Amino acid sequence: MLRRAETAELAAIAALIARHPMQLLAMGEDWLAEIAADPANRVMVWDRDGFAGFAIIETAYPQVLTLPNLAVTKAGEGRSLIAAVLELAFAEMGAHRLFLDTVFDNQRALEAFRRAGFTEEGRLRQCWLRPDGLWADCIGMAILRDEWARKRSGDAAALAP
């Protein structure tokens, strides 16, 4: 279940962010609290009988959302979390567009987002500072409301008996 994070859970989210090679996003609990305080944004917990991951959704402009961070604590949860985030962004938050970027060599993430319906929009040169001090390129990806709706309908049709 995807639900809003409680203040007490921000430390667990900050710790999970810190374990990933995203120094630009490892800004701690204060940063998360600031995002969560804005009603246009969402700091969400992926709850699978306990903390199993999180997603941060920010409103860049009306109906244009960004997904600056999403992570799970164990393999196999990513696909379900991404589907829940898409449902939240489009069905509940009224998004027209959801954008994200991920480091160019994170093939698991790139493939998961492609499977969910995201389209690669380009390369952002040297956008992530890694812990070793080297900058890495990112791949920008987005999904539009109509693409999500078609994918969602297609997935439902594929699952029908």
UniProtKB/TrEMBL annotation:
Gene3D superfamilies: 3.40.630.30. InterPro entries: Acyl_CoA_acyltransferase (IPR016181), GNAT_dom (IPR000182). It comes from the Bacteria. Pfam families: Acetyltransf_1. Residues 1-146 form the N-acetyltransferase domain. GO terms for molecular function: acyltransferase activity, transferring groups other than amino-acyl groups. PANTHER family: BLL6696 PROTEIN (PTHR43610), N-ACETYLTRANSFERASE DOMAIN-CONTAINING PROTEIN (PTHR43610:SF1). This is N-acetyltransferase domain-containing protein. It comes from Cereibacter changlensis JA139.
